[in-house]
Amino acid sequence: MSSSADELARLRETASKALLVVLWLYVLVAAAIGLIRDMAWPMPTSVMLS
Fold first, then answer.
1. Using CA atoms, how far apart are residues 17 and 8, in angstroms rounded to an integer?
2. How far apart are CA 40 and CA 34, in angstroms?
3. pLDDT tens digit string along 12-39?
4. pLDDT at residue 2 is higher than 70
């Protein structure tokens, strides 16, 4: 039973790290799109960061 619990904990940790990477990439992509379109991008990006 403990090996399956350890496996689940390892999977949960891996998924959490991957989700954090994806979320930060989303912020960077949103900022890049704002810069490319030359629009007011700082406000939406700062809202996403907070």
1. 14
2. 7
3. 999 999 999 999 999 888 878 877 776 6
4. yes
Give CA–CA dist 22/16, Å, rounded. 10
**Per the domain annotation, does 48 fall within a domain?**
yes
**Counted domains in the chain:** 1
CB-based contacts of 31: which residues, under 8 Å, 6+ apart? Answer: 41, 45
Task: Give domain status of residue 3, yes or no.
Answer: no
Contact by Cβ (8 Å): 30, 48: yes
Contacts 24+ apart (CB under 8 A), 26-31: none
**Inside any domain, residue 11:** no
